[in-house]
Amino acid sequence: MSCVNLSTWGQTCSMLNRSRSPSFNLLRTRPISFVSPKRRRPNSVSAILTKQETVDEQQREESAKPGFNFKAYMVHKAESVNQALDAAVSLKDPITIHEAMRYSLLAGGKRVRPVLCLAACELVGGSESVAMPAACAIEMIHTMSLIHDDLPCMDNDDLRRGKPTNHTVYGEDVAVLAGDALLSFAFEHLAASTVGVEPARIVRAVEELARSIGSEGLVAGQVVDIHSEGLTDAGLEHLEYIHLHKTAALLECAVALGSILGGGSDSEIEKLRTFARYIGLLFQVVDDILDVTKSSQELGKTAGKDLLADKVTYPKLMGIEKSREFAEKLNRDAQEQLVGFDQEKAAPLIALANYIAYRQN
User: Fold this and answer.
1) Which one, of 63, 61, 86, lies nearest residue 74 by Cα?
2) Which keywords describe this protein according to UniProt (predicted)?
3) Is the peptide bond before 37 cis (omega within 30 degrees of 0)?
4) Is the torsion defined by CA of 48, 51, 56, 62 positive or negative?
5) Max Cα–Cα distance, the chain, nearest Å
6) CA–CA separation, 50 vs 293, rounded Å?
7) What is the predicted pLDDT for the residue at 298?
């Protein structure tokens, strides 16, 4: 994998521009192996002093298509997703496991991934109802990843979306099982609840989802991330590998599922896939910046935990200002992928890219 040229910003990794088949295949052909160093857990976090950057909300909204109300769109779509999630995972026996599943699934959150799925479906001519089961499946899997990520054996976090993490409420054993249950039910819900779509597209969507979260997707990014704590020689290529898999894979899957189920052509699916890969990397660059510039109260999760875990981050390798420049570049490149689509229908995706770039939590 080629890494970003920091001196010119002239080229983004060749992997981002690679045309791919519907299957998820971002891994190198040469395997990567890691020797896990002893994890260092310092007693205190050294703050990175940076100039606080404030972004005017009106400026962000104006960067989307004039007349498009992004805030109203997000509120409307998030409400639809929340209602669908509430209906999909009901409170039934065994009560404890379903309470734990619902606790994290319905705890709030921006619903960026399911909204991406719905917006991509509508962009290629589909309807919200067609993509809603897939959107819910994406959010179930995202929630599973958060529950497991917060466990003591992983990031050992006690705050998520402004609330105590799942394992601090229900215990580690139930938290693990709640994540497992959400993972399995996501596939059941996608396969059984999607209507009005030809079976071949549903099968393709199921395959897409499985690949995005398995050993060639989300899990790959997670395991390399775990083994990277305390590494002193990790560079941008290494960091990009982690986040193209750990973060971008699920965002990419969201738009791929939406465009597949919405009836998109192969070329449309690939352009939207590339768009999502850019904003997936963008999401993580911004996340890394926020982790060292915002408080836990502002973020709704523990701030500074990447420093505490001695993780490799973009600010650590590039500095705050270069990280911000990189984020701007990724946003521009992402939006270039939407040229050629109906710009009125593309407005939600354009606004979502800007939202990810300029979010404050």
Assistant:
1) 61
2) Carotenoid biosynthesis, Coiled coil, Isoprene biosynthesis, Magnesium, Metal-binding, Transferase
3) no
4) negative
5) 58
6) 7
7) 61
DSSP state, residue 268: H
DSSP line for 163-210: EE-HHHHH-HHHHHHHHHHHHHHHHHHHHHH--SS-HHHHHHHHHHHH
* 28 against 148, higher pLDDT: 148
What's the whole-number average pLDDT of the chain? Answer: 82
Question: Which of 39, 71, 48 shows the shortest CA–CA distance to 310?
Answer: 39
Per the structure block, which two tokens stand in for 298?
A: 């502002």
5-17 tens-digit pLDDT: 433 344 444 444 4
Q: Is 61 exposed, middle or buried (0-12, 13-18, 19+ CB in 10 A)?
A: middle
Residue entry with tokens 């590039």:
318
Q: For residues 282 and 238, what is the distance between their CA atoms, to the nearest angstrom? A: 16
Structure tokens at 204: 């393709």
CATH superfamily, with its number, for domain 55-358: Farnesyl Diphosphate Synthase (1.10.600.10)
48 CB contacts (<8 Å, ≥6 apart)?
292, 293, 307, 315, 320
Coil, strand or helix: which one is 160?
A: strand
**CA-CA distance, 288 to 247, in Å (whole number)?**
12
Task: State mean pLDDT over 180-199.
Answer: 97
What CA–CA distances, in Å, run from 300 to 36, 56, 86, 107, 127? 30, 21, 22, 12, 33
To which residue do tokens 């998109």 refer? 264
Residue 341: beta bridge partners? 339
> Which of 63, 24, 102 lies closest to 280 in space, CA to CA?
24
Res 62 pLDDT > 70? no
Number of helical H runs and strand E runs in the chain:
18, 2
24 vs 273: which has the higher pLDDT: 273
